[in-house]
Specification:
By secondary structure, this protein is of the alpha+beta class. It has 3 domains: 62 residues, no CATH class; 136 residues, 60s Ribosomal Protein L30, Chain: A (2-Layer Sandwich), CATH 3.30.1330.90; 75 residues, Alpha-Beta Plaits, CATH 3.30.70. The protein is 30% helix and 29% strand. It has a 6-stranded mixed sheet. Strands 11-12-10-13 form a 4-stranded antiparallel sheet, sandwiched between helices. β7 and β8 form a beta hairpin.
């Protein structure tokens, strides 16, 4: 911006100051201006190349230089400290996120209004992360109904946080989506506002290897997440605690055999739901258990006639929220 041509237009004896950005002044032209007397002096806090350790401007009696310390005044440091503390306390008390470097700001009103669906998305992510031992390749999240008209990006981030939670430390709603993409996991989001079977549904397809795991959930009331579809089968199950998910044939005696297998080892079934594609076809069962079964118990279930597979999935207890969502929670138990 300021070079030889601009300096030639100035009244001799002026003094120039640059504490903005290096390169605004042509440093070679400044030196010529000082030597010719056009400039009476110069003060520089920034340079074309930083850190600047050598320059013909250094050591001159008509030049004052500082090593890019324009913000290092007592007043500036005090204000930075105050703002930093305010940003932190706002997040811890209300969940407000301002001035984040890797996410859009999060308004506390949006966060509170979506709290139940953020919990739902997070739990769907945790569930799907445990259905397969292979790493995921891609994720497609579809929002349908009333929820599609709201800030679904936050719910997508909550899902990503849940999906990565068991594999990484310090995953949250701010960095989860970025961490997912860094691992080469494609993330696609779709929305349609027309309602389906429920007023709002969050449906997820998780591509793992050469197959796809599917799960969908909705919210009962304001804070009761429910699983309403799993692996293509409609059902209704809790999304908390210890779950047994088993694929089986839709034939008489399956449920009784599973109950007997668990009962013989002291495992209590708190809630049970099943879904099937057609009478006598493939089916899926989801059991909420009061305690985690032993390997012996699982072995007893897996050896039951008609059972194709059985897997334990561990989810947070009802009402338990991630730290990034717990601020301002009303403490509902989610049931």
């Amino acid at each position: 911006m300021i070079g030889k041509e601009e300096l030639s237009l100035l009244k001799p004896g002026v003094r120039l100051i640059n504490c903005a950005r290096g390169g605004i002044y042509d440093e070679e032209a400044l030196l010529e201006g000082l030597e010719s007397g056009v400039l009476a002096g110069a003060a520089l806090d920034v340079f074309e190349t930083e850190p600047c350790t050598e320059s013909p401007l250094f050591g001159r009696p008509d030049v004052l230089v500082t090593p890019h310390l324009g913000a290092s005044t007592e007043e500036a440091q005090s204000q930075v400290a105050i703002e930093g503390v305010n940003l932190l306390t706002d997040f811890l008390r209300t969940g407000t996120i301002r001035h984040s470097v890797n996410s859009s700001p999060i308004d506390p009103a949006d966060l509170e209004g979506l709290r139940g669906f953020l919990d739902l998305g997070w739990r769907l992510g945790i569930l799907l992360s445990q259905l397969d031992d292979q790493p995921p390749k891609a994720v497609s999240i579809a929002y349908r109904g009333e929820i599609a008209s709201r800030n679904t990006r936050l719910i997508t981030a909550a899902f990503a946080a849940g999906l990565l939670e068991t594999a990484l430390e310090d995953v949250n709603i701010i960095n989860a989506e970025m961490l997912l993409r860094e691992r080469g996991i494609e993330l696609v989001e779709q929305s349609r506002t027309d309602p389906g079977a429920f007023s709002s549904v969050v449906a997820v397809d998780l591509v793992v290897g050469d197959h796809v795991h599917r799960a969908a959930g909705t919210l009962f009331g304001r804070s009761m997440p429910r699983l309403v579809q799993l692996e293509g089968h409609r059902l209704e199950a809790y999304l908390d605690g210890t779950l047994l998910i088993f694929m089986h044939e839709d034939v008489p005696g399956i449920i009784g055999n599973v109950g007997t297998a668990f009962g013989g080892t002291g495992v209590n079934i708190a809630q049970m739901t099943v879904g099937r594609s057609a009478p006598g076809g493939d089916a899926i069962g989801v059991l909420s258990l009061d305690q985690e079964p032993s390997e012996e118990s699982l072995s007893n279930v897996r050896t039951c006639e008609g059972i194709h597979s059985a897997k334990i999935c561990k989810l947070p207890m009802a009402g338990q929220l991630p730290y990034w969502l717990a601020a301002g929670s009303n403490g509902s138990d989610g049931r």
